[in-house]
Amino acid sequence: MMSPTVHARRCLLYVMNENAQEALTDAFEAQVVSPEWPTALYLKAALLVQARHGPMHRKLLNTRCTKHIQVQDTKPIKKRT
């Protein structure tokens, strides 16, 4: 099984080279490998919004961002030693 990071990085390369369909495929693959990984969720939602698949995907992106921020706010801050 490939790391979700590999899919995410390759997805960004496809975006930079204007290969939207390949980028979207890798974003979906990253989410399959790691369903709760926020980066995969952001990539997928952002690409769907960019591809203009409707307001439903904008709502998904906003929901995921809000969920991630709430999770980050509840994590205790680790002190460096």
UniProtKB/TrEMBL annotation:
Keywords: ATP-binding, Brassinosteroid signaling pathway, Cell membrane, Kinase, Lipoprotein, Membrane, Myristate, Nucleotide-binding, Serine/threonine-protein kinase, Transferase. Its EC number is 2.7.11.1. Residues 1-45 form the Serine/threonine-protein kinase BSK1-like TPR repeats domain. It is an enzyme of class 2 (transferase). GO terms for cellular component: endomembrane system; plasma membrane. It is a lipid-anchor. GO terms for biological process: brassinosteroid mediated signaling pathway. It holds the Pfam family TPR_BSK1_C. The keyword Lipoprotein applies. One of its GO terms (molecular function) is ATP binding. Its main location: membrane. The keyword Glycosyltransferase does not apply. InterPro entries: BSK, TPR_BSK1_C. It is found in: Cell membrane; Endomembrane system. It catalyses: L-threonyl-[protein] + ATP = O-phospho-L-threonyl-[protein] + ADP + H(+); L-seryl-[protein] + ATP = O-phospho-L-seryl-[protein] + ADP + H(+). It comes from the Eukaryota. Serine/threonine kinase that acts as positive regulator of brassinosteroid (BR) signaling downstream of the receptor kinase BRI1. Interacts with BRI1. Belongs to the protein kinase superfamily. Ser/Thr protein kinase family. This is Serine/threonine-protein kinase BSK. The gene is BnaC04g26620D.
